[in-house]
Design goal:
This protein has one domain: Ferritin, CATH 1.20.1260. Helices cover about 65% and strands about 0% of the residues. The chain is built from ten helices and no strands.
Length: about 250
């Protein structure tokens, strides 16, 4: 596999993860616990989708088949998506959403930090722009983990239950894309083990500060996204997200 082909798969994984995370988080629009956080969650969802647009556009260019960001978003089935499994999980209650965001945001910050030094100029530019947003996202989700984890008995139960519901999918964030080893050897993307170590340190410190039980980082976790194996939830997301485009191909407004 060539470096360009490997980079296509890597960028596609990033773009798909941001797109599905953004779409899932957008479900909170008009349903947030209070107006301020309803708006905050919606804005973060828009940030994720904005990152997805840049990444899927670049993926289309790398692929060289003339597919646009819209083609990649709306004309692939679930088995062709490469988003991390964590992103497609249901929102659950606010506590579950917060902890799911926190796991993803901690990963995103470290990933974008590393890619900001990439020799691939376009990937580097996307990472630098996304990093500013990802740092804000992490501050937001981390603050809520601390508030709920070290809050009332009810909030402690909800954040703990949320973490238990999503934890088995954490490891899939680090599942290597097809040909990723080529990119690591060329110094284009970070090595997964070092990236994961930094993310786990952020999680461990935060959970301890939040007086929460630190989860087992060595637990066996669900994977499969990079082979096109997803939870049942992704098909439902895509059915909703792609419905208008597939009903009216080529339509513009």
């Amino acid at each position: 596999m060539t470096s360009k082909e490997a980079l296509y798969h890597y960028v596609l994984k990033m773009g798909d993860s941001s797109l599905i995370m953004g779409h899932r988080l957008s479900e909170w629009t008009a349903h947030g616990p209070v107006l301020e956080h309803d708006i905050a969650l919606t804005n973060i969802a828009l940030d994720y989708i904005g990152q997805a647009r840049m990444l899927l556009t670049y993926a289309g260019e790398l692929e060289g088949k003339g597919r646009s960001e819209d083609d990649l978003a709306y004309w692939r089935d679930a088995a062709q998506y490469r988003n991390s499994l964590l992103c497609e999980l249901p929102n659950g209650d606010f506590g579950q959403t917060v902890v799911k965001m926190f796991l993803f945001d901690a990963f995103q910050v470290e990933l974008h930090e590393a890619l900001s030094q990439s020799p691939d100029e376009q990937l580097k530019a996307i990472a630098i722009k996304s990093l500013k947003e990802s740092k804000y996202h992490l501050r937001y989700s981390r603050d809520w983990v601390l508030r709920l984890g070290d809050g009332t008995e009810e909030s402690k139960i909800r954040i703990a239950n949320g973490l238990e519901a999503v934890w088995m999918y954490f490891g899939d964030l680090f599942a290597p894309s097809e040909g990723e080893s080529v990119l690591v050897s060329d110094g284009i993307v970070p090595e997964t083990a070092s990236l994961r170590k930094r993310v786990e340190e952020t999680l461990r410190k935060t959970f301890e500060e939040a007086t929460m039980a630190v989860p087992d980082f060595d637990a066996v976790m669900q994977e499969g996204s990079q082979r096109g194996i997803h939870t049942e939830y992704l098909s439902y997301i895509l059915s909703e997200m792609q419905s208008v485009t597939r009903m009216h191909p080529g339509a513009t407004w």
